[in-house]
Amino acid sequence: MIRLIVALFLLATPVAAEEIVSGLSQSQVAINANFDGSAILIYGAATRTSPPPDWPLLQVIITVEGPSSPLIVRHKERVAGIWINQGAVEMEDAPSFYAVATTGDLSDILSKSEDDHYAITVEHSLRAVDSASDTLNPKDYVAAAQRIRTVSDAYRLDRNSVLLLQQSLFRTEVTLPANLIEGIYKVRIFLTRGGKVIDMQESQINVQKAGLERFLFNLAQQQPLIYGLVSLLLAGLAGWGASEAFRRLRF
Amino acid sequence: MAALRAHLGGKQANHPSMQIYLPIAEVSVNAFVLLGLGGLVGFLSGMFGVGGGFLITPLLFFIGIPPAIAVATGANQVVASSISGVLAQLRRKAVDFRMGLVLTAGGFAGSAFGGVVFDWMTKRGQIDLFVQLSYVLFLGLIGAMMLQESVRALLRARRPGVQMIRRAHVHSWVHGMPLKVKFRASGLYISVIPPLIVGAVVGFLSAIMGVGGGFIMVPAMIYLLGMPTKVVVGTSLFQIIFVTAFTTLMHALNHHTVDMLLALLLIVGGVIGAQFGARAGLRLKAEQLRILLSMLVLAVAGKIALDLLLTPEELYSITVLAQ
User: In whole angstroms, what is the distance from residue B47 CA to residue B230 CA?
Assistant: First the structure.
């Protein structure tokens, strides 16, 4: 019995002995009027108390996940010659942005069970709401949502985009798109060996509208009447101003 | 440590500054594209005397602005171009205020009802289809009518010696209705019911399509109400100001979908374009102008009809639900 415990202990120890030390180039992103996307540098190292095993090699997976919101996925069908939205499936909270950066092919560096446990690939965040809907194949809808967001570059899987030096130092750059929405972006870093996750660390990037963007957005949400009237006032002034300016120019 | 720093030294992203992030639409768009779009539509609207909403809203869809925001912001932009236009008409005393007010009263009712339909269609996921069908139907109809009429007028003008018969008072079913009112500037004594209905239809379209409705208002005034052409454009623009202002306010209050920054860029481009357009318009004959406008209207309708008929590349679409 004691031998068994010792054997287990010996097996477990080298795995637990590697820990992540990491940082982000910025933990705040301000969306101001000329915001055009932002590159976030994620870097770090695996620190060890004992020499690392030679095999399997250390691998790094980094995920960046944007704020989630529920979705409706609609399917068009041809009715009387024109394309009309027919079926619809509601989806639970789907991330607005999801990037996975790795040091290799996910199938090689991450086991299925670990993926399920840590919900690393984006599929784990996409689920149709269980309902008594008469839609035959909600899976097609979920797959379509993933496809659409992958095409628009909101969901990404970047193989080999994490640079790993000397089996310890790692870095990657994740570009946040220009049409970013506000909220907390969750960054997760996983170290794996032989498909097993040996350490995980989480940090956050706070994305907020700033300056004029912040002011206008808040005004529109909190004081819609004033916002609407100001919009009209601006329109009126612009219309009158242009008419006057050009009248003067003409004479 | 130096190695680590060198390893970490990421490149600083180099951003061109003409991109602008729209606070409500939550997309980043090139500011010059918006100014140019506003300018182009302003030029056409100045030339033809229409608000230009029927062009700006589909163009905004096209550059990736969410439909709800394009409709609401389009309405706001039409307010500015209509004010600019009405001031020019006012100096020529070409505005029938009484008729304008009657049309506006009908317009408010139509716009409020349009807002309700807009909400209902949005919930059912059919708003895009409804907006597209409205565009195809109304633009197609008006464009075809206008083209036919102006081609005929042009041919008639080419044949010398044939005089155009113009009757001062055409008596139609419009004149048989009760509640008659004198519209002095238009020289009309007709029931208020037809202008109220015309106003309501245009107000409804304004809320659904984000347009001022000049393209439907102008022919309705000439052919249905029998108003003289000289007061039509000014009066139409006058009432469009109020209906689109009301529509803008409704969308701002109920859906928070008016993007002020987007509107401002479109307006700045638009008001400048409109002034150049108005000058260019003076060089063309009225019939030529109407043929060009009708072809433009038909082209927009045709483009939208094709979108409905051709098999889309992606059959699925996603809509983010508000939390």
Answer: 16
| Amino acid found at B273 | G
CA–CA gap between residue A224 and residue B252 (Å, rounded):
6
Distance from CA of A146 to the nearest CA of B (A): 10
Maximum separation of any 2 CA atoms in chain A, in Å: 104
- Residue A250, Cα to own-chain centre: how many angstroms? 55
pLDDT tens for residues B170-224? 556 666 677 777 887 777 788 888 889 989 988 888 888 877 777 788 878 887 8
- Helices in B125-259 by DSSP H: which ranges? 127-158, 193-209, 214-219, 229-255
| Sole residue written with tokens 């000329």 | A34
Q: Pick the closest to residue B261 from A240, A35, A206 (CA basis).
A: A35
Q: What is the maximum alpha-carbon separation in chain B? A: 96
Distances (CA, A) of B30 to A36, B37, B305: 10, 11, 28
Closest CA to B274 of B87, B129, B135: B87
B contacts of A173 (beta carbons < 8 Å): 10
| Residues A45-71, mean pLDDT to the nearest whole number | 90
State how far the Cα of A128 lies from the Cα of A87, in Å rounded to an integer.
13
- Residue A31: pLDDT over 70: yes
ipTM above 0.85, yes or no: no
Please state, in angstroms and rounded to a whole number, the distance separating the CA atoms of residues A119 and A127.
12
**Average pLDDT over all residues of chain A:** 86
CA dist., res. B244 & res. B252, Å (int): 12
Average pLDDT over residues B308-318: 86
- Label residues B260-282 b or e (16+ Cβ within 10 Å = b): bbbbbbbbbbbbbbbbebbeebe
- Check if A39 contacts B (Cβ < 8 Å): yes
The model's confidence at residue B1, banded by pLDDT at 50, 70 and 90, is: very low
DSSP letter assigned to residue B187: T
CA distance A46 to chain B (A): 13
pLDDT of B176 reads 67
**C-alpha to C-alpha distance for A226 and A214, rounded to whole angstroms:** 16
DSSP string, A104-135: S-HHHHS-HHHHHHHT-SGGGG--BPP-----
Mean pLDDT across chain B, nearest whole number? 80
Strands A196-209 and A183-193: antiparallel
Is residue B259 within 8 Å of residue B24, measured between CB atoms? yes
Side-chain-facing half-sphere of B266: CA atoms under 13 Å: 33
User: In this prediction, what percent of chain A has a pLDDT beyond 70?
Assistant: 90
- Record the tokens describing residue A71, joined without a space: 């979705």
CA distance A69 to chain B (A): 6
CA distance B203 to B225: 17
Residue of B nearest to A222 (CA): B256
What is the reported pLDDT for A150?
A: 93
Quote the pLDDT of residue B126: 81
